[in-house]
Amino acid sequence: MFPVIPRRWLILLAVMLAFLPVVLDMTILHITVPSLTLALDASATEVLWIIDIYPLLTAGLLVPMGTLADRVGNRRVLLTGLVVFGIASLLAAFAQTPTMLIGARVLLALGGSMIVPCVLGIIRRTFEDEDERAMALGLWGTVGAAGAAVGPLIGGGLLEHFWWGSVFLINVPIVLMVASLVFLLLPRTETTTPGHWALGQALLLIAGTISIVYGIKAGVGATQSLVITVLVLALGLSMLTIFVRQQVRSSAPMLDLSLFSRPAILAGMIMAVVTTGALAGVELTLAQELQYVLGRTPLQAGIFMIPIMAAAAVGGPVAGYLSNRFGLRLVASLSLEVAAAALAFLALADFRNPGFLVPTMLALLGLTLSTGLTASSIAIMGSVEASKGGEAGSLEATGYELGTGLGITFFGVFMSRVFSHSISLPSDLAQPLAERAARSIGDSYVVAQELTEPQAAAVIEAAKAAFSATHSTLLMTSAGLIGCLGVLVFIMLRGYRDRN
Fold first, then answer.
1. Residues in CB range of 441: below 8 A, 6 or more apart
2. Could you give all domains of the chain from N- to C-terminal order, each with its CATH number?
3. Is the pTM of this model over 0.85?
4. Helices (H), 94-129
5. Alpha-carbon span 32 to 96, nearest angstrom
């Protein structure tokens, strides 16, 4: 029998609420992109950095912060992260330039990287019983999936009445309330992992991870020369190699590399990267399609995505129940295959006339992805002892952030290149303006603001046609990726129940 913590469900409530502002920030910005692009006169590159800087930095910070939480205590790191996140949200809300907003997003990444691994680590330490842990992670998954889905709706509602900065300002009262609950409910004493937290090793891991991710982004996006891209990748690989050697030789390593030998953890991380990458790209594309092409308001675009939100809200508990009943392997892989089928249908659907089937497929997509991702969390957290909960949670969260950052990059670059080749701009448009308008649909709208009719209308119509030309390809590509992932997860999770 495991020791039962009397207030464990109240503790779960507190940490789920702590996770809420972080997950909202992941998607609420997607619906805001058109508004802030025009308000800040941001270029396509600046917009990508505003979106991408958060997952890029968080990917490098999560593992060091997860191991720090295991060393000094989850409660202390979680409270610090909430304070940093609240301050950063305030700075982002009142940013006057794209550069200021990017800087605020850097601070948001620091705060978020402290919060996420602590949430998962606390759940692992609080729930020793496997069935209870599955349900707890299912409820946590509900907050993650539903929060990500409701982000566009909340963002749309705020933009209907306030300026774009309100999507960040809303985090401040949430953080104040949650920090108070965490301070009161979480135990002040907790078991920690022995050993010191090596700052030098942490900085090496952070710099190496960020260099690798940035090098991949720069290479895919062709934002830097080939020489610089190769040098950055080589530098990042060298730093990570040194870090790995330090961990192998150390008697008390910062990161237990043996975790990567466990198939459930590897499957969960791969699942997190591919699924969140595809979902982030699809969601960002849909938000722009609905507003730029179909002329929906931010609120209307958010309402259009309600089926995803509502279905995702029940996906977490469904995953907990089904995993206990039928096993993780079947639940995780089958949910991904159904999600792939839903995406394939949406790739061929007409969003101008959605009817009944489009909302149904959106709901099915939200339900299955939420179920699959929660199942992966159950597998990962069930594969480690409680003392390594923060470390395992940080690895899982790193997968989410890498997927989000790289997914948006790959989708953004793909859209940009196809858009620039597809757009047919008026022949009398000045060359500098034509070059900017061909970069993205957001740039086309910015250029159109500087023109008079009928030239402005012609640029807008050309941009709409070019953007729609790649929509089906994007969704179908995502369907193929997730379908292949379902097969891979089925293979990697064989025998999982026998080991646990």
1. 288, 292, 293, 419, 463, 464, 466, 467
2. 8-197+254-419+470-499 (1.20.1250.20), 423-468 (no CATH)
3. no
4. 98-126
5. 15
